[in-house]
Every structure is written in C-alpha cells, then in structure tokens.
Amino acid sequence: MSMSNNPDNYGLRLVTRYVVLTVIAIIFAFPLVFMIMSSLKPDQQLLADTSSLKAFLPVGDISFQNYENAFSRVPVGLFVFNSMLVTSVTVVLSLFVCSLSGFSFAYLKWRGRDLLFSIILATFIIPFETIAIPMLLITSKLPWIGLDGFSIGWLNTYRVQIVPFIADGLTIFLFVQYFKDLPVELIEAARVEGTTWWQIYRLVVIPLSGPVLATAAILKFLVMYNQYLWPMIVVQQEEYRPVMVGLQYFFQTFTKGGIAWGEIMAYLSMITVPVLAFYLYIQRAFIASVAATGVKG
Amino acid sequence: MPPTTNLTTSNSEGWTMISPGFGLIVFFIVLPFLSAIILSFTNQRLISPNPTEYVGLANYKQLLSVGVLTLDPKRNSNGAVVRDKNGALKYPRLRNFTRNNPQYPHIKGMRELFSWNVGDNQRTYILARDVVFIKAVINTLLFVLIVAPGQGGLALCLALLINQKLRGINIYRAIYFMPVVVSIVVVSLLWRFIYDYESGLLNNLLSSLTFGAFESVNWIGDTDFALGSIIVMSIWQAVGFHMVIWLSGLQTIPPSLYEAARIEGASKWQTFRYVTWPGLRNTAILVFVVITMQAFALFTQIDVMTNGGPLDSTQSIVFQAVERGYGKQDISGGSAISVLLFVMVLCISLLQRWLTQGRS
Beta strands B122-128 and B111-118: pairing type? Predict the structure, then answer.
C-alpha cells in the first residue's frame, strides 16, 4: 500500500483511527463508569436510568446514601483493614524472601543449585486451583506457636492467608532475570574488598533493584488484594475476612428479592476505585510489570 | 539455567539464602501437589471419625465412567411402535437398564448425559456415572477453546492498534488495560447487574436504542446464553493483560525489518505475515499457554454469577473441585478432580515445549 500524500486523505485516516480507538475505549470503560455512577443513585432511579445514557452520568438524586447503607450492612472498615494487612505483609515478605532466593541463584555457586532452579521453574505449571483442596487439608492440621501458646490448625487466621503466598516461582524468576543483567563487575569489586555476600545483597544489589522490586510488588499486590477462592475456603470467621469475600454479604439480598444494587455498586466502588486511582497514577509501572512477565517461558 | 559467574563457590551462604524461598515453595506448592495425587487414591474427608483408606482408582472411576446405550422404541402388545401425542417415538425408561438390571452391570447407576436419534427407530444414549462432572469438563473445554483464540487474537489486534505512533496513544493503552487491575470478583458481580434480565443495563439499553424492538435476553439465566455471556465478560476483563504482552513482543522486532519491507513495497498484510508474525512466535506461544492455563482455572465467574446453573450449563472443573473438596468436605474427590485438571494443563505445557523446540 503506497503512502498517500493527499492531506485531506491523511486527515480523514487520522480521524478514523481516533474514532476506532475511542469506540474501543468506551467498551472498556463503560461498565466501570456505570458502576461508579450507579453507586451514587437511589435504587429506583438507578434502575430507571439503565434504559438511557443517564446510566453513565451523575444526574438526578445524587448522594452517598448507598455508601452509608453498605457500611451498616457490612463491616467495611474491618474488611479493608484485613485486606490491607494481608496484602502488605505478604508483599513485603515476598520481596525479601524472593529477592534473596534470586540473589542466591544469580550470583552464588552452590551444590544442587541447578536442580533447585529447575524445580522452581517446574512449579510454574501448577495452577493454584489444583492445589487449593489438599492445601486446605494441610493448613487445617498445621501447628503454630504464637503469643497465646501452641495451637493446631491455621484456619481462620491471618497467617493462612499470608504464608502460602510469600514465595512463588514467577517472582523468584523475575529477580534472577534482573540480577543477571546487573554489571557483574560491581559485585566482583565488592568481593575483592572483602565484603560479605549479605552486605553485597543489602548494600550493592538491593539499592540497584528499584524497577524489579516495583514489578514484583505490583504483581503480588494484584494477586493478594484480589484473592477470593482461598480466603473463602479457609476463613469462616468475619474477624479475618478480606474485602472480596465480604461481597458475599450482599448475596443474601439476591434470594430475598429486591436486590440492593445501589448498595452493591457502592461497595464495589469502595474496594475498586482506590486501586484504579493508584493504577492510573502509576500506570506505566503497572504496564511495565505485566510486560516483564512476558520474558517468562 | 542461571548464569555462571566466575565467583567462588559458597555453599553455606547459597543454601542459607535460598532456604526460606525454596522451603516455602516445597511446603506450599510441591507438598500440596503431591498430596493431591496421593489423596485422590483415598477416601480422605476434611473431618472424619473413620481412618483414611486406600481406595485405588475408585475416585477416578466415579468421575470418568461413561457408557453408551442404544435403545429400540417401545412397542405395544401388537408389536407396533408407541408414539406420544406429538408423534414422537416413545422409548423405554433408562432406569430400567441402569438400576439393578443384571444384564447391564457396566452402566449401573449411570444417568443420561445426552442422546440423539439414530436412523428412524433407534436412540443412542451417552451415559455417565457423574453427569455433573462430565458437563463441567465439557463446559471448561468449550470455555478454553473459545477464550484462548478469541482473547489471544483480540489482544493481538489491540496491541497492533496501540503500537501506532499517535498523540495520546498512552491514554488509550491505559484505558484498555484498566479492567485488568479490577478484581474478577468485582467484575463478575458488576456484570451480573449488567446482564440482569429485568433491570440489567444491557437489555434496557439495547431495548431503548432499538425503540423497543430488541427482545430482552436472559443472559446468564438461559442455558443457550449463560456460558457465552461469561466468556464475553472474561475476555473483556483480561484481554488488556495479553495486549501488553503482545506489545512487548512487538517492540522487540527491529524497525530496520519494517523499513526493508517498506522499501520492497510490501503490503500491510505482507508486512504482518512475513515480518511481524515470525517475530512474535515465542510471544504467541507464551500468550496462548498463559491464557489456556488461566481459562482452565475458571472458577470465580461461576461462583459469583451462576453457581454452575442454569441446568449445569456453566459448571466448571474447578467449581466442581471446590464444591466437593470444600462444600461437601470430600477432600479425596476434590483432589482427584484437581489431578485431572493438572493433567490437562500439563498436556498444554508439553505442547508448548514441543512447539518451542520445533524452532531450534
């Protein structure tokens, strides 16, 4: 196809491109816009608005009443706290443990290294869904020594939501890939000066690892904050439930008739908008994180 | 394999640094995985007063047994075939054959999966011992077969679209990626509202856009539409993820190749066919394997939107594993399903390895 130099033709094609891009953008954005707008409207108006474009506009009787109602139905604060606690503790521990493993694989020579590395690569093809059921059995029988003494069984705790997700093959692999590309001269120079491996990890490698730490943190954050299946089966007590499982409180309105859609949309907005805002604020980092998983395989 | 630097061997530090990560992986991935295999040969329950027993392949037989039965129509005392009010042939009841019929021991306890007429006066029945599980397998395979090419292909189209040099293109990329950061749980509940039969956005909007000509569809309550509706929603949620992976693949193709193609006068299609696509080969394999593995794990959408219904038309393998392993506390049955799921995923990975090696 020859390039056209006709300016009108060029302008038309440019407009067409933007129209196509915009139509697709609307397809991706409309459900989320609808969710947020609906959360601000009383149920009656919200249902009436679904038959027109008003569904996507903040018009009519706008208020935060649905949010207030959602707060009285569900302990929102507790669930948000639980999710933040579980997510942040897992992310921090995961960054530490996985970067240490990556460091060991990338820079140190030790017996069994290649074998262990292939075992970790092999775990890539085990989907979590295939181990959830036996893990339920295992964690229900694990011992724990805490401040309140010795106990058996991890069900209905924070740790059952945290510990199994600290280490994973993909995160370790991301660190190995990144460390491999750091200039090895830096490490050799530090070794010659008699620096220990622990100091090299802490003082040389980690300070240079901003991008990979961000990538690993973002990926882990998304996985942990969005956990559903696992907390659903291991946490029955409200005290330890995360936000996603909290959604089940609204399921009871399904059978009783008169689904409280406004309240549901308010709850969905509350647990989604902060993440979306954070994403839009640092979207380049988010997208770079996903692109980084493309080197896998 | 990790690179080998010319650094000294350091067994003690190496082992100390690897042990937390490796230990956790062994304990929380490898051990549960091996347990799944072992438990699937037992009758283990989550809580049970009886000791666990080895039951061999019983769990697998229960899940996978299928049978075929061909029946002749009912005849009355004169030997003429019996027809119902609509003139259709009447067939003997299946349970005459599957319940306590000593002549048909191999289909004892089975139920009908589906059936069709053979010729003019015979009907063939496909029977299964665990009808719900077989339906779950069929639905999951259907889901995978549509989502893998559909989502992978759409993601590539979006990546090609986003790979243009245009002002503001990053804003579009950010919007297309947006649903990826929203939890699938949230997406499922939101779309349950959009798909709602009476008060849903989709029906009402389509109806008013066509001035009432559009007849409302029960998107997730009709066996013909439920799985399809879930497929559309799942692709909407995840396609941005794979768009980004395609995009990073596209950006590894050297611009000089496009320049050469342009000088040679290649058409847009030829450029794609002979420059872009060969450069994307490894990305393509990765994208399709990742989508396939994610699609096999279909669970949340079902749990939030349909619970497997209507009439088991959206049952999935993982949903069944959870319903048995957790809902009915039947750890061994759930484990057997998990192992079967793993075998399917493994086949896909082996196919990937085979395809990747075919190149070198």
Answer: antiparallel
**CB A218, CB A286: distance < 8 Å:** yes
d(CA A196, CA A202): 10
Q: What is B132-357's CATH number, 1.10.3720.10, 3.40.50.300, 3.40.50.970, 3.40.50.720?
A: 1.10.3720.10
Cross-chain residue pair B296–A127, CB shorter than 8 Å:
yes
CB contact under 8 A, A188 and B191: no
Tell me: the pLDDT tens digits for B115-145?
Answer: 888 877 788 888 888 899 999 999 999 999 9
- The tens digit of pLDDT for each residue in B165-222 reads 888 899 999 999 999 999 999 999 999 999 988 888 898 888 888 887 888 888 988 8
Q: From the CA of A248, how many Å to the nearest CA of chain B?
A: 9
Q: Where are the domains of chain A?
A: 7-68, 77-246
Q: Taking CB atoms and an 8 Å cutoff, what residues of chain B touch A52?
A: 205, 208
Is B114 in CB contact (< 8 Å) with chain A? no
Q: Write the ipTM.
A: 0.89
Q: In this complex, do A132 and B240 lie within 8 Å of one another by their Cβ atoms?
A: no
B208 contact A CB<8A: yes
DSSP codes of every residue in B173-208: HHHHHHHHHS-HHHHHHHHHHHT-TTT-HHHHHHHH
- CA of B39: which chain A residue's CA is closest? A134
> CB-based contact (8 Å) between A140 and chain B?
yes
How wide is the angle at C-alpha B284 spanned by C-alphas B282 and B289, nearest 5°? Answer: 100
Closest residue, chain B, to A26 (C-alpha): B175
| CATH code, residues A77-246 | 1.10.3720.10
